[in-house]
Model the fold of this input.
Amino acid sequence: MSGTQTKIAIIGGGIAGSTAALLLSRTGAQITLYEKASSLVSGPPFCHLHAGGNLYPEISDEQCLKLLEQSIAFARLYPYGVDHRPTITALPAYCSRSTAHLLPRLEKLTAHYRTLIAKDPANEVLGKPEHYFRLYDKTTIESLKKHPIVPHPQTPDEWMIPFAHEVDLDTIQFPVILVQEYGLNLFRIGAGEMLALSQIPNVDLRLETEVTQIEKSDNEWKITATQNEQPNQERFDYLINAAGFLTGKIDDMIGVPCERMVEFKAAYVSHWKREREHLWPEIVFHGERGTPRGMGQFTPYPQGYFQLHGMTKEITLYEEGLVANTPQSCQPQLPQNLMEKILKSWSEEETRTRTQSAIRHLARFIPSFATATVGSKPLFGAQQIPGSDPTLRVAEVAFPAPRYARAEIVKVSSVVDMCSAIVDDLQNYAQIDNEHFDPHYPYFESIDETELGTLAEQIALSREYPAALARRCVPLG
Ligand SMILES: Cc1cc2nc3c(=O)[nH]c(=O)nc-3n(C[C@H](O)[C@H](O)[C@H](O)COP(=O)(O)OP(=O)(O)OC[C@H]3O[C@@H](n4cnc5c(N)ncnc54)[C@H](O)[C@@H]3O)c2cc1C
Done:
């Protein structure tokens, strides 16, 4: 079987499935990407490039180093989806841990970043390694408070000024860390995928098409997919299950071993009217997950919109929001009220209550933010976590049956490694052109920025979000 004859089916056009379609297209295989929604990357949201895992003090150093490595690969693949603004992390004054606990890891991350750049200078996508992180003591921040806000910050100090102006410095510990973890824009990434994949002749993008049945016969998969209520069966040599939190449903159709969890979470969109608009860094206030003091995350978008996470049960997390599969089914079952949010809609009341809780959560540290209001419906969704460890942040793919890859990403940055592993497995069954598999190929170079921006905004509006959420904070340089 040669590359041009190999037929690959991908179920799910989230970041995992659409990246697989893009990267595997260069192997010469014929790829069919099935997505039941009307656009790509419509699953759970993402806004943060975890380039070092600094949001997660509880995870291992190994996971953080992997997150750094994978985030660099992701930023190289999707340069147009990255917002180059740093993240400021502060530990609240009441935390028993101190910033000193985080420093050894930051040093390891810096050293690893240096090594990655030495291997390939193009890996330098987070700035100079010596500037990967910077510490700010109280005196320096108090002196920055006297500086006027710079509308388009360039230096770490300039990014720190809005923080110095607005954060109540009595509520946090020092030093504060500024780290080069950037923002991601899911609407722009989705739009770019739609445009790029529609130009690739060996990728057949089937939107609004749901895979409803799978049969295995000899060395083939017979896949039935339904579009406009019309079922259609086709044969494939290799199957990639990238169905996100519904991965277990596909596993059940095939009958393979599995162990996974699914977690429902939501982030809230607020609007903060200010006299003058200026750029903000992302700001994270650490805290113990699941307690009333859970981490608060303040993510800026243009035109006064801020996305908020609060890792408490009243904000981002939900009672019974984390569920595991059973011996009877690979598909973990979320409670009815959470499935209704995914499949139907949110009540205005819950949107208001939870968004206001999120605003109060952040206003504990940024008092003036208390005047923010609800900006739109929340960004929400369920994500899968393979295995039984809910703190797992790095996972790629499993191969529980021949000719079958099961995408299992937890963070979007794992998609490039996921695709490399799939190409390795694929070679066991097909003569593909693996030499041309290249995560660094400039897939989006020919895409017109205006067309991309317009489509990103259309996608945001069609999902009932403000167009501003589809715009970059930091303009392309
Ligand atoms: C609130 C929240 C915030 C998050 N923030 C971040 C962040 O800042 N950074 C980060 O890296 N990660 C973040 N994540 C995690 C991230 O969103 C997920 O890891 C990622 O989106 C998963 O992508 P996926 O492609 O695996 O799944 P999905 O995006 O869920 O894609 C699966 C697709 O499969 C389709 N599908 C399912 N079944 C079928 C079928 N039978 N036929 C056809 N199509 C089907 C679905 O419609 C869907 O589009 C966050 C998650 C949540 C919930």
About this structure: The pocket of flavin-adenine dinucleotide is lined by residues 11-17, 34-37, 42-48, 50, 210-211, 242-246, 265-267, 380-381, 383, 407, 409-413 (CB under 6 Å). Residues 7-44+187-258+389-470 form a domain with the FAD/NAD(P)-binding domain fold (CATH 3.50.50.60). Residues 271 and 305 are 5 Å apart (CA to CA).
